[in-house]
Design brief:
With about 260 residues, this protein is α+β, with helices and mostly antiparallel strands. It has one domain: Alpha-Beta Complex (paralog of FGE (formylglycine-generating enzyme)), CATH 3.90.1580. Helix content is about 20%, strand content about 15%. The chain contains 5 helices and 9 strands, in the order αββββαααβαββββ.
Length: about 260
């Protein structure tokens, strides 16, 4: 890249970052290594289907720049949607209002359809799986976790607990400035899940298979062990599933953001 192009790219990133919608973070576009490049103990086993092989092959892909929520959607934010759009509240609230004392906790118990409806109401959308991984990795290119290769501890993320999710923003953000991108609650992505999709996905802006049975969730949750918190780990669930371990983080395409 020439010095002129590099300078223009830096200025473009700075301007768009400064114009990010309230509560969102600018994620620069470009190439990154998607997929698992670290080894797992079971990699050499000749099992079928191969255990945890759906996050391979690791390939360089590219995504366009976009914005993504700095924090997971909270119960307070979701309550505004419930009231304004006359939507049903999550089953685990027990009423139309969030449980007392949990106003700043991530909303959970929402299906993929609920998550999609919320994002549309807010003038946003669900991130693609590729966008999610780009955002989660930050500058940790090829690393295991958003902060690098060091195994997570209780000061890094909320995981392996029976006490449920905690307030958003309690841990150090990743290098893009995103909080709770690992742990707390899984986050819905727009994509259908396909075990061998990585081998056949397009190199630019992959959006997932055209159809499927399950939707992708990423990031791990409060109930999971550390291996589910990696930037490469893929999981999935039925789009109608409502579980206390899955929540929402919205995205916005550049040029389409509107403020609510």
């Amino acid at each position: 890249m020439t010095l002129l192009r590099f300078t223009a790219s830096v200025l473009f990133t700075a301007v768009l970052g400064a114009q990010a919608p309230t509560g969102m973070t600018f994620i620069p576009g470009g190439e990154f290594l998607r997929g698992r490049s670290h080894k797992l103990p079971d990699d050499g086993l000749k099992w079928w289907p191969e255990l945890l092989s759906d996050d391979q092959p690791a390939r360089r892909i590219s995504v366009d720049a976009f914005y993504i929520d700095t924090y997971e959607v909270t119960t307070t934010e979701y309550a505004r949607f419930v009231s304004a759009a006359r939507q049903k509240p999550p089953y685990n609230w027990g009423s139309a209002n969030p449980p007392g004392g949990k106003e700043n906790h991530p909303v959970s118990g929402v299906s993929w359809f609920d998550a999609q409806a919320y994002c549309r109401w807010a003038g946003k959308r669900l991130p693609s799986e590729a966008e999610w991984e780009r955002a989660a990795r930050g500058l940790a290119e090829g690393r295991t976790y958003p902060w690098g290769d060091r195994k997570p501890g209780k000061k890094d993320a909320r995981f392996e607990t029976v006490e449920g999710p905690g307030p958003v923003g309690q841990f150090t953000p990743n290098s893009f400035g995103l909080y709770d991108i690992a742990g707390n609650v899984w986050e819905w992505c727009s994509d259908w899940y396909e075990r061998e999709y990585y081998a056949q996905a397009p190199e630019k802006n992959p959006a997932g298979p055209r159809k499927g049975m399950y939707k992708v969730i990423r990031g791990g949750s409060w109930a999971d062990v550390d291996k589910f918190l990696t930037t490469a780990y893929r999981s999935w669930t039925r789009p109608a599933e409502e579980t206390p371990t899955v929540g929402i983080r919205c995205a916005v395409s550049i040029g389409s953001a509107r403020r609510r």
